[in-house]
Amino acid sequence: MKIIGGTFKNRNIYMPRGIRPTQHIVRKSLFDILGQDLTGYSFLDLCAGSGSIGIEALSRGSEPVLMVEKDQRCFEILQENLAMMPMGDLSQKTRKYEILNLDAFTAVKLFSTRQQRFDLVFCDPPYGRGIAKKILKILEACDILHPNCTVIMQHQKKEILPEDLGRISLVREKKYGSSRLSIYEIRKQE
Prior knowledge:
Blueprint: H1 24-34, E1 43-46, H2 52-59, E2 65-68, H3 72-83, E3 97-100, H4 104-114, E4 118-123, H5 131-141, E5 145-156, E6 164-165, E7 168-176, E8 179-186
Parallel strand pairs: 1-2, 1-4, 2-3, 4-5
Antiparallel strand pairs: 5-8, 6-7, 7-8
């Protein structure tokens, strides 16, 4: 698989066996929605897998980028993929990214404790387990979303997510084969 845009464009990344990678057309559409230049935006990639989405965000100028992956094998490949990028050899203090070997729920609680907030959140949890809706609920419950945050959930097409969840509202959906991107924004307070 290759990075499709930004400063790392055309660089190869490894894919762990047995995971469902985000298809090229879905990644392209995702960054058409978010924008090609993400300079000045903080980015959270939950259930990061190989890191393809988080690395795309880094490639397009997002900083900081936090990538969370629970599976140890995927986490190790994520580390390898980041090490292959031009900034991969920087010390932890100067990195534009952070990777955490945690489940999404624990990570969101950690970010809340740290008082970290994000402009853009992408989540592609394993299909068929009902995790997407649970992650939306914890994102709404914990204060880690900037007021203008966009949350994009990639999930199985047949899984229906709520249109409104507290201050998070569904604004658009796009379907790609068996996948769906559900785009949420923070509802403006009146």
